[in-house]
Amino acid sequence: MRKRSSVWEMPLNRGAPHAYAGGMSERILFAELEPLLATPEPPQLGPGPRPGVRSIEDLRATLQRSLTNRVSRAHEGRLIEAVVLLWHDHHEPAHSIVQDIENADGSFVHGILHRREPDYGNAGYWFRRVGRHPSFAILAERVARLPVDGADHELKQRLLAGGRWDPFAFIDACAEVSRGDESGSRGRFLREVQRQEFEILLERFCA
After folding, report:
1. At a CB cut-off of 8 Å and minimum separation 6, what does 148 contact?
2. Nearest Cα to 90, choosing from 51, 126, 40, 48?
3. Comparing C-alpha atoms, which of 201, 33, 39, 37 is closest to residue 111?
């Protein structure tokens, strides 16, 4: 029997009431799923794997319990699953999900996946398909508040040229760090930026 590529291949109970038509319910769902991103270390800029991540089976069981009959469109559940799997370094199953989601949200996650692979040219292709994503403004605000060492101030300015988030500058910065030591201050800052990126997308997909 073929394994399901996503928990969202299961039949959905379309007649069930959806739990978060308003702001309160979406915050409840995000609060319920946010612990799935509570690993000892955030994702590396590269593919990993790193210690402390959860198995695909464990993650999918948790997602199935939390999400079944609680999202209004199946692609939202698939995007949540892809973000969580990618956070836990399960690149192939995350890729099998996002490659079939042909919108800006799917392209955003697809771009992150290839940036971490790393396939920087392919990541740039997918971020060009994203266009000006609504999450970029939120990410710019959060990155602007992140503390940086003096030597990394120029990097922060590059990522926020003109006060706007530049995903292509972030790809370039990740490529530069990949040629050295990710454990330095620059690598730690970029991993924190990436953490914000994941959290913003998860919050968006829970809405």
Report:
1. 155, 156, 185, 189
2. 48
3. 201
Using CA atoms, how far apart are residues 73 and 196, in angstroms rounded to an integer?
A: 24
pLDDT tens for 151-181 read 899 999 999 999 999 999 999 999 999 988 7
**Range in 60-74, 92-106, 109-123 the model is least confident about:** 60-74
**What pTM does this model have?**
0.87
Q: What is the pLDDT of residue 197?
A: 98
Evaluate whether 10 touches 69 at the Cβ level (below 8 Å).
no
- H/E segment holding residue 1: none
Range list of H helices, 146-184? 153-159, 167-178
Nearest CA-CA partner of 35 in 88, 107, 91, 113: 88
- In sequence order, which residues have a C-beta less than 8 Å from that of residue 42 and are 6 or more positions away? 191, 192, 194, 195, 198
pLDDT tens for 25-51 read 778 899 999 999 999 999 999 999 999
CA neighbor of 83 nearest in space, from 121, 12, 75: 75
Q: What is the mean pLDDT of residues 125-131?
A: 98
Report the Cα–Cα distance between both ends of the chain, in Å, rounded: 34
Describe the crossing of helices 134-145 and 185-206 by its angle, rounded to 10 degrees.
Answer: 140
* Burial class, 38, CB count within 10 angstroms (exposed 0-12 / middle 13-18 / buried 19+): exposed
